[in-house]
Amino acid sequence: MTNLPPRSLISAAASLCVLVLGLTAPAPAATGGDPAASGVSEDGRYLSIAAGCAACHTAPGGKPYAGGTVLSTPFGKLAAPNITPDPETGIGGWTRDDFEAALRQGRGKDGMPLYPAMPYTHYTGMTDADIDGLWSYVKSLTPVTNKVEVNRLPFPFDIRASLYLWQTLYFEPGRFEPDPAKSEEWNRGAYLTHALGHCGACHTPRDALGGPLKDHEFEGARIEEWYAPDISNRPGSVIADWDVDTLKARLDGTDGGNHAMVGSMRDVAKELKQMSDADLHAIATYLKDQPARPEQSPAPAVAEAEIGAGTAELYQSKCQACHGADGRGTPGIAASLVGAGAVLADKPHNVISVLLEGIGPEGTYGVMPSFRPLSDTDIARLANYVRSSWGNDAPATAGPDLVHALRRVTDSDPAALKAAYCPNVEAGKADAALRARLAELATHATVSPDEVRDLAGRYDALNPGASREDRMRDLGGLMCQEVVKTGAGKSTVILRELNLFNALMQDLNAG
After folding, report:
1. For the chain, domain boundaries
2. How far apart are CA 306 and CA 488, in angstroms?
3. How many CB atoms lie within 10 A of CB 374?
4. How far apart are CA 258 and CA 331, in angstroms?
5. What is residue 24's three-state secondary structure?
């Protein structure tokens, strides 16, 4: 691995982490027709829909694929680039090999690693034919002169060099391999889910450095104030009680239940409706055939008094006029709250965020107003009420503290973002002495060369034959856990963990 300056390593990796953990993209503008694309095969256009290209690369009110959509993070902003074939401000100077390197290797034309806000960790599985089709489509677009300042992160988070480290820890390039024991439809669904559709980019939880927790694939993850629900098909997941046809109908909006998508899934839903019935059925087939996993221990329920006294009256005064006494709403006017995935998710974040932020109009559906003026307690009571009424059986886990935290997130207060998942480390990889030493260092802003050599020596003695990636990942995970115990916020957790990574890398390079 290339030697990296300490500050570059910390700052670039930190900026990467917040991009992975904290993306909040505005709703994309409708792409509309593109005259130059009219002669291109429908396959290329379809691939761009399945891959979700327009959602990021078309800014609200902007020209198709001309970039400019701003992705907000607690540490700054990143804008999606112009991918039209304009030679000056787009990718008109790219070759097919450059395009493939971006998708499969996470490398830009300059050879530098890309932020995984562009989901190359999934696109790496694309077939040659699909890359060819997508490349042909992108080349056929009308060139648009639109210079985009992509990296808007402040110093020191604007340095990209140490994305090499993140890729070493979390990125495994490789093409999708069909399972010969499964049907053609199942494999098509797996390909769409993992490669083109990159469902796990939102629905898989991540550790504090933004690395996906592969042992918990599709088990749900928080994205800013929203929550991408558990779609792992284990007991308690939002799709567990649906059959393949029901899930397919939920994906394309034909289930007839008057349900609505929330958060960034609203944008995804627009793309899903343009996909073929066969592909949506394949995705549903794959997701419903996931291996059995243990059910999560239910979160402790809020005391009944917090849901009960006066909450029905609160619903009647604030919600019933649109959503009805039975919670089923009015088709085309107000969505049903009964059996809705966003309502039944194992976490209450989506209901709380909708109450705080409201929802803009969609088709014939009107505006869902914001109830931000309500107290944190009343928002929590309403969330618990709709999640546990009319046959809904989601756990009543909303409380005033969570509402307060999400209220601050929507106010763009990064201090509200507490430490996310820390990497899981097998119990046998660290003894009490190593954990105690890490606990001492968890309060240090930096780790000295002598201290890191001591940590590495202790780890290597306990784990003979472990790779350098294992050492970095495990020690980083252990450090993350110890920093979280101090009550530090997410940014501190990330920076302390990165300090350790930096010291480990410097020790490795010195050796």
Report:
1. 6-170, 184-287, 304-414, 427-510
2. 29
3. 17
4. 5
5. strand
